[in-house]
Amino acid sequence: MFELKVSQEIRQACPVFAGAAVYAAVKNSTYSEGLWNEINEFTRELTTTTQIDDIKLQPVIAATREAYKRCGKDPGRYRPSAEALRRRLMRGIPLYQIDTLVDLINLVSLRTGHSIGGFDADKIQGNQLELGIGKANEPFEGIGRGVLNIEGLPVYRDAVGGIGTPTSDNERTKMDIGTTHILAIVNGYNGKEGLREAVEMIQSLLQKYTDSVGGEIVYF
């Protein structure tokens, strides 16, 4: 099990921050029809009830954007993942299909507005993650994005370096079809509200669509 810590610099910049995590043993798959039925249902609901300019006003997304500003990043240039995913759907671009674990995390992020780090737990170095703020020229390869400038972004670091930000996670610890243990971290820059619901949603979807063989909610 991992120890999850919040640095003093994050506590100062984002004093209401709270987080929750799910660790589980899983069996991944390339595609889940049931999960994609849920994703398509959410897409229809979002695109028929929301205007694109309203996305950044969703409370959790708005709080994450404010955290970016307090940490030194422009949220208009580096969007939180939940906001970017919703904007993608509103522009009529379908959600990309990766694999069941990644698609599942994306759905929970879309539903809740939380930016969620989804990691292959076996690729994390050491047993401790600390949430801090990215430094100038700190190396970070975003998934599908190449080198990402994480200066001023909230970032989780393991014993080697950064593995996850609300904008993108790192290639080094990404989930893939061979992932057998998942660590999913829900980031509440608006505080504790909605965290329990988000992690319970993750656990429920894992049990339905990934043959999860056990999970545990970890609060910090």
How does this structure look, described?
With about 220 residues, this protein is an alpha+beta fold. It has one domain: Phenylalanyl-trna Synthetase, Chain B, domain 3 (Phenylalanyl-tRNA Synthetase, Chain B, domain 3). About 35% of the residues lie in helices and about 20% in strands. The protein is built from six helices and ten strands, in the order βαβααααβββββββαβ. The protein has helices spanning about 10-15, 35-50, 60-70, 80-90, 100-110, 195-210, and strands spanning about 5, 20-25, 115-120, 130-135, 140, 145, 155, 160-165, 180-190, 215-220. It has a four-stranded mixed β-sheet. A four-stranded antiparallel β-sheet has the order 3-9-2-10. Strand 5 (about 140) and strand 6 form a beta hairpin. Helix 2 (about 35-50) packs parallel to helix 5, helix 4 (about 80-90) crosses helix 5 (about 100-110) and helix 5 runs antiparallel to helix 6 (about 195-210). The radius of gyration is 16 Å and the shape is globular. The mean pLDDT is about 95.
Q: How many structural domains in the coordinates?
A: 1
Number of helices: 6
How much is the average pLDDT?
95
Largest sheet features: 4 strands, mixed
